[in-house]
Amino acid sequence: MRSAAVGVAVTLSHLDGISAPQQQNLLPLARVADEAGAAQIVLSEHVVLAKVISGHPGVRPGDPPSGSFFPSDEEYPDPLVALAAIAAVTTRARLSTNILLAPLRPAVLLAKMVATLDVISGGRLDLGVGSGWHREEFEALDVPFRHLAERTEDSIAACRVLWAGGPSSFKSSTVSFSDIYCSPTPVQSRIPVFFGGQPSEATAARVAKLGDGWSPIGGTTPAEVELGIGLIRRAADALGRNPEELKVRCSLPLRRRTEGRPQLADTLAETRAFVDAGADIVQLPPLRSFIDESSTDPIAAVKAVIAQAVEVVGNGGSAQRITTF
Questions:
Q1: Contact call for residues 38 and 8 (beta carbons, < 8 A)
Q2: What would the pLDDT profile of 26-54 be if each residue is shown by its tens digit?
Q3: In contact, 117 and 84? CB cutoff 8 Å
Q4: What is the pTM of this model?
């Protein structure tokens, strides 16, 4: 399932300390990520967060509480709006969500927004979607917190119909419309859709049926990635799809030395295990992890981190020298 070239994905979420107040550095950071050779520029999503966060799927027994991953008041720009702005200051990197919470938007509205972004970006969009897990977020938006996986699948299936152009009709238990036009249609003949999720038969079936890739949740190990890819292969074969066409984007675990400081070299050294497991794209941990808060030019420091990551990943996860920032 892995192609010859492995790309580096850079998330521009969780940028506290280098994003500046009100995301003033978001576009400059996107620009340098593009210049440094990032394959994907990625934004995560939460519309709102409760004061006390619970239920995070990536939290395992013994882990710290979810709130230590992101505070409730962390800035989360809408990913589709932000990526539209990023499209204007970049030229080569693909633009991706990881993940967009599909059930929080009506399917027809999602199709319209995604198609518009694909057009604005010149066909550079990769859509990463998931079902969601934060009950209070759904309640605040008056969206039922049930049948989320089914509604996510129906939403993407409906989007596929609308993106094809012409008078479109679709009917399922959660989405229904008849003879409507959704224009503009995407530049890409097929917008790549990455489904987030655990390595499970349900995720594999979803990817094989409707998707173009899998984005394992953070904390998924190389062994679990290999397991998930095996499930996807079998599901794709059963549907007559070529498993080699399906991609996998994995998040590298943040590695620290004994003194507790995050280490870029140790983090990038994890690349080989994920590539051997079948990853096509490896996503860096939040960039703030590698930038000294006292840095006088955090944007330049970010560019250097990404450039080194691109070089190391291109060399299979090994490097002669890594600069400390």
A1: yes
A2: 999 999 999 999 999 999 999 999 998 87
A3: yes
A4: 0.92
